[in-house]
Specification:
Blueprint: E1 14-27, E2 32-52, E3 55-67, E4 76-85, E5 90-97, E6 101-108, E7 115-122, E8 128-131, H1 133-138, E9 139-150, E10 154-165, E11 172-182
Parallel strand pairs: 7-8
Antiparallel strand pairs: 1-2, 1-11, 2-3, 3-4, 4-5, 5-6, 6-8, 7-9, 9-10, 10-11
Length: 184
């Protein structure tokens, strides 16, 4: 396997684009739940090794942005790292969203896995969600889960965040999914 140091993340290295993303969320402007299609562009750049005492990690520096329709400014962006620890089979995704939220999600996978799931929970000691005071009070992320599936020249994800929102008496399921094709 090429780039074997990156384990199951090796297939993500490169530049990606997806035209058919689908965001299911509460639309504040319309005061209703709806679906929004989007274009997504993602860049994964490999780095490593990173040595933490006895632990050795290989990672991907990543940036993603999403646009609805003919928007010039993205409605959503993220920056962060995807990390692989071959000794434990741990996969981690550490990212920040410029709405005052950071997430470190994790799980385990085999080095040659083509699909894996990562999870995080607000208040968890290891795989955690951190957020600013506004989000904590009005739209708190309680859990986050993503399943990634990597194919030949494409990859896809399905994400689910359970939110405690002012607008709903129960937790609200916010989901996103997209299939991306390698463009570089």
């Amino acid at each position: 396997m090429a780039n074997e140091e990156w384990g199951p993340l090796a297939g993500l290295i490169g530049e990606w684009e997806g035209q058919g993303g689908l965001d299911h969320s509460f639309h504040h402007a319309d005061d209703e739940v709806g679906d929004t299609t989007y274009l997504e562009k993602v860049s994964f750049k490999p780095f490593g090794p990173v040595v933490n005492g006895a632990q050795t990690l290989y990672g991907l520096d990543y940036k993603t942005a999403m646009w609805r329709g003919d928007e010039t400014d993205p409605f959503h962006t993220e920056i962060g790292y995807w990390l692989w620890d071959a000794a434990t089979g741990e996969v981690m995704r550490c990212f920040s969203i410029p709405r005052g939220i950071v997430v470190i999600a994790g799980g385990t996978a085999a080095a040659d896995a083509k699909s894996f799931t990562l999870k995080a929970a607000n208040g968890d000691a290891t795989y955690a969600i951190g957020e600013g005071t506004y989000l904590h009070a009005h739209a708190s992320s309680i859990t986050y889960e993503v399943t990634v599936t990597i194919g030949d020249g494409e990859w896809s994800y399905e994400e689910m965040s359970m939110l405690k929102m002012d607008e709903f008496p129960d937790l609200f399921p916010h989901s996103d999914r997209c299939t991306l094709t390698k463009v570089g």
